[in-house]
Every structure is written in C-alpha cells, then in structure tokens.
Write a structure and sequence with these properties.
Chain B: Belongs to the TsuA/YedE (TC 9.B.102) family. The complex is a heterodimer of chains A (about 140) and B (about 140). With about 140 residues, chain A is mostly helical. Chain A has helices at about 1-20, 25-30, 40-60, 80-100, 100-110, 115-140, and one strand at about 35-40. The chains are: A mainly alpha (about 140), B mainly alpha (about 140).
C-alpha cells in the first residue's frame, strides 16, 4: 500500500508544481527578481503548501506510527551548522541561475523538455560530486 | 520594485501549493516519509540498492508522470527557460551539490521543514531564498 501512496504522492506533487507555476523557470525567476518586474505568486505557493501540510504534520505528531504502520521518520538533525548553511547557499545560487529546483527538474524531464533533462543530468552529477568529496566539508 | 501584475497568479499558485502540501503532508502521515525531492533522489542513486528504495522509485515515477497525464487532458502551461546551456549545467551542478550538502531543497526544507516548525529548515529556507534573490539580481541587473 505504501508504494501506491508514494506514487500518488509523487503524482499530486507534480500536478501541484504544474498548476502553481513552479514548473515554469521564468515564473520562478520572476519571483526572485525583486529589483525588476516582481511576480509575488510563488509566495502563495509556499503559503498554500504550508497551510495544508502543517495540519497533516500536526496530526502525525499525535501518532506513534504512520497509517501504513511504518515508522514516522522525523528528521533528527537539529543542528544549524556549516554544511546546512553552505549547502543552502550553493543551492540558492543554482536555483537563481536557472529558476529550477529538484522537483520541477523532474517535471521538466517528464514533459520531455531538453533543457530540463540537461539540468537534471547536471544535478545528478552535482549529487555524485557531493558523494565523492562533500563528506570532507561535513567533517571539517 | 514594481509588481508584475500581468503574470501575478495568486489563485493557481495557492491551488498548486495546496496540492504540493497535500502530497507532502499526506506522504508523511501515510508512509512516515519526508517528501524532500533532493533527499529522495539522493537515496535512490547513492544509497546501496535495497527494497526500501521502492517507494522512492514510485514517488519519482509519479512526479515524472504528472506532465504526461496533464498532456492527456490539456496542453501544458507555458514553460520558458532563458538560461543558456552552460548556465543550466552550472546551475544543475550547484543545485545537486548544494541540496545534498544542506540536506534539502525547496520541498524538504521549505515545505516539509517549515510545516513541522523546524528551526533548522527555516534557516536553510531563508538562506537559499536570500541567495536566490541576490543571484537573480546579479544576473538581471548587477553584472551589466
């Protein structure tokens, strides 16, 4: 059952990215362009997402396990440390350069958009690079 | 700053956001898993292969299928990409490396993290948003 829920979850997530405009990189850079013609729409995406997800996480907090009886995997790391800040900084720069983050990248792949495929291949290469040398930053 | 009223779309943004929140909150309540796309991809490709990865494949398959199903009913909304190929590759590398180092992206930290009131995710979200603003400013106005 968990696999069916995951597939539906991915599908609904993807439809949300398309409906909201997040899957259109120009819409994202329009939001990030504070100094130009600013399109505030994406603030509403975040608002809508949190308004629905917050009560669901609140419900989960009252449970000892997920509906499928799986363990609720609450993230354990609470540290605000160098890897978190440096990672968010590097991610933010890449996000601003192209207007694409990981979810929309996969939607663009599904839509067969060549630039989305190029971005996703580079993104996976970036993840491999982290596997190769990112752990050094974690330790230092 | 001037508001771009021509492209401003609060209702579809809210509706799409609600779907994203439903998927993320639903996945946690039903399966106990955080719907962080960078984390799901990282687990898929860089953890040793295991049965526990099947849900990750299923989630990614759903995500890839969304635009395919959409096209079966209606034309996809506009997709405009202004970045050059070189810029796309650099951006992809940064996004891949940064999200793994920072343990999350817009979905894991932004949606799931803020919804479970995590201070760590709030700091990450404020950081990548601020850097995003600065990057676009440099790209659009600062560097020429």
């Amino acid at each position: 059952m968990g696999i069916v829920f995951a597939a539906i979850g991915g599908l609904v997530f993807g439809l949300g990215l398309i409906v909201s405009g997040m899957a259109n990189p120009a819409k994202v850079t329009g939001f990030l362009d504070l100094a130009g013609q600013w399109d505030p729409s994406l603030a509403f995406v975040m608002g809508g997402a949190i308004a629905v997800a917050l009560p669901l996480f609140w419900l989960a907090r009252k449970r000892t396990q997920a509906v499928t009886a799986e363990t609720l995997q609450w993230p354990q790391n609470k540290q605000i440390d160098k890897p978190l800040l440096l990672g968010a900084l590097i991610f933010g720069a890449g996000w601003g350069l192209a207007g694409i983050c990981p979810g929309p990248a996969l939607v663009l792949v599904g839509a067969g958009v060549p630039q989305g495929i190029a971005f996703t291949v580079a993104m996976l290469a970036g993840m491999s690079l982290y596997e190769l040398l990112g752990h050094r930053i974690n330790r230092s | 700053m001037t508001i771009d009223w021509m492209h401003f779309s609060p209702w579809s943004a809210l509706a799409g956001g609600a779907l994203i929140g439903l998927a993320a909150g639903g996945l946690f309540l039903l399966n106990g898993r955080i719907a962080g796309i960078s984390g799901i991809l990282g687990g898929l490709f860089f953890n040793k292969p295991e049965r526990a990865n099947i849900w990750r494949w299923a989630f990614v398959a759903g995500l890839l299928l969304a635009p395919v199903l959409w096209r079966g009913v209606a034309a996809l909304p506009a997709i405009q990409i202004s970045a050059s190929s070189l810029l796309l590759v650099i951006a992809g590398l940064l996004v891949g490396f940064g999200t793994r180092l920072g343990s999350g992206c817009t979905s894991g930290h932004g949606v799931c993290g803020l919804s479970r009131l995590s201070a760590r995710s709030l700091v990450a979200t404020l950081t990548f948003m601020a850097v995003g603003f600065v990057t676009v400013w440099l790209l659009q106005h600062g560097l020429h």
